[in-house]
Write a structure and sequence with these properties.
Layout: H1 8-19, H2 24-31, H3 35-46, H4 51-63, H5 74-85, H6 90-95, H7 105-114, H8 133-136
Length: 137
C-alpha cells in the first residue's frame, strides 16, 4: 500500500480552505488527496480543533502504524545461540524444522547483523583471499 501521510503544510492549507468554507471536493482536487482525508480534517476543525492539534494527534496515531518487532522467547534465543556456536548457519537452524520459530531466515540473519547474536559464531563464507591474490604470487 502506498500512502503518503499528511504534511503540516497540507494541514494548514486545508484549515485555510475550511475557514473560507471551500467545498471538500474542490479542496481534494487542489491538493490531489482523497475526499475522505479532507473530511476527516474538516470534521476535526468543526469540533473546535486546530490544524496543530490535529497534526499532534495524527503523529501519535502514526506511531502505532507498522509491524511490531519480533521478540524472541528466552528458550528460542538460547537455542539459536547454542546452535550458532556449534557452527550452524541461520538457514540450517530454521531449515531443519526441529522446532517452530517466530521468524524467518532473513529476519534471523538481520538479528545477527544488528548484534543480537554473535556474528563471529557463524561459519565464514565467501572469498578468503583479496582480489588479485593469485596474480601477485
Amino acid at each position: 500500500m502506498t500512502y503518503t501521510h499528511l504534511t503540516p503544510n497540507e494541514l494548514v492549507m486545508i484549515e485555510a480552505y475550511f475557514h473560507q468554507e471551500t467545498p471538500v471536493a474542490i479542496v481534494a482536487k487542489q491538493l490531489k488527496r482523497g475526499r475522505q482525508t479532507i473530511y476527516n480534517v474538516y470534521n476535526f476543525l468543526k469540533c473546535g480543533g486546530t490544524a496543530l492539534e490535529y497534526f499532534e494527534q495524527y503523529k501519535e496515531n502514526k506511531r502505532r502504524c507498522g509491524r511490531t518487532e519480533i521478540i524472541f522467547p528466552a528458550e528460542e534465543k538460547e537455542y539459536i545461540a547454542k546452535r550458532s556456536t556449534e557452527g550452524w548457519t541461520p538457514d540450517v537452524i530454521i531449515g531443519r524444522a526441529e522446532r517452530t520459530f517466530s521468524c524467518s531466515v532473513s529476519t534471523l540473519y538481520r538479528r545477527f547483523k544488528t548484534g543480537e547474536f554473535n556474528v563471529l559464531h557463524l561459519p565464514m563464507q565467501g572469498k578468503r583471499k583479496p582480489n588479485g591474490y593469485y596474480l601477485s604470487n
